Amino acid sequence: MSLTASAGRGLGAVWSPTHVQVTVLQARGLRAKGPGGTSDAYAVIQVGKEKYATSVSERSLGAPVWREEATFELPPLLSSGPAAAATLQLTVLHRALLGLDKFLGRAEVDLRELHRDQGRRKTQ
User: Fold this and answer.
1) Rg of the Cα trace of the chain?
2) What CA–CA distance (Å, rounded) separates 17 from 32?
3) 87 alpha carbon, distance to own chain's centre
4) Closest listed residue to residue 25, CA positions, set 47, 43, 50
5) Of 66, 67, 65, 73, whose CA–CA distance to 111 is shortest?
6) Residues paired with 43 in a beta bridge
7) Overall pTM surpassing 0.85 (yes/no)
8) Where is the chain membrane-spanning (predicted)?
9) Cα separation of 1 and 33, whole Å?
């Protein structure tokens, strides 16, 4: 965490997180894209320009399990910079042996909203 002076709030200081740790546990309800009603699924997590790809969960039946962690450096969450830089994107794909990988699903998390939500535990 870093300590930054709060603009317009006098001499007060505000703690601002500098990194976010993401744990990808599993996905549910994915459509099968592979033979036999299964998928070879993997997840790509992106924050700003940083990306992390999980391992491939082979022959999963719509609910792949990864249990993998990644840490990303955060843009300043209190600034009014581009919103895309403060978004965590998680995309799940099916690994295709031939051709392009197939899209299975996507989720986005607004990190600024999480930072403003003071009632939420920071580990959620």
Assistant:
1) 18
2) 38
3) 8
4) 43
5) 73
6) 92
7) no
8) none
9) 42
Q: Where is pLDDT greater, at 47 or 1?
A: 47
Looking at residue 52, its amino acid is: Y
One DSSP character per residue, the chain reads: -EEEEPTTSTT-EEEE--EEEEEEEE--SPPP-SGGG-EEEEEEEEETTEEEE---EEEE-S--EEEEEEEEEPP-TTS---GGGGEEEEEEEEPPSSSSPEEEEEEEEEHHHHHH-TTS-TT-
- Which pLDDT tens digit goes with each residue over 8-18? 555 556 677 78
Exposure b/e, 56-90, CB count within 10 A at least 16 = b: bbeebeeebebebebebebbebeeeeeeebbbbeb
Residue 56 backbone class (left: φ over 0; alpha: ψ -120 to 50; beta: rest): beta
Q: What mean pLDDT do residues 66-85 have?
A: 76
* pLDDT attached to residue 1: 52
User: Exposure of 19 by Cβ count < 10 A (0-12 exposed, 13-18 middle, 19+ buried)?
Assistant: exposed
Tokens of 61: 């039946």
Altogether, the residues listed in the chain come to a count of 124
